[in-house]
Design brief:
The protein is an alpha+beta fold. The protein has one helix at 34-48; strands at 4-9, 15-19, 25-28.
């Protein structure tokens, strides 16, 4: 089973974790940071529709 390793703090102030196989990254924020992370998710989803390569959102939970 893959392990999650802390990467540090992202620009959004989120705690960032990377799965040891490199396949996924998780970001966790306190309730006060949810709106900012939600906006980041929206930008990622928008980018995916442009044909420009980038990350994708696999799951979202609050």
């Amino acid at each position: 089973m893959p392990e999650w390793n802390p990467v540090g703090t992202g620009e959004s102030g989120a705690q960032v974790f990377r799965r040891d196989d490199g396949a996924l990254v998780a970001k966790c924020v306190a309730l006060s940071g949810v709106d900012g992370l939600r906006e980041e998710r929206r930008r990622i989803e928008w980018l995916a529709g442009t044909g420009i390569p980038g990350p994708s959102v696999v799951d979202w939970s609050t």
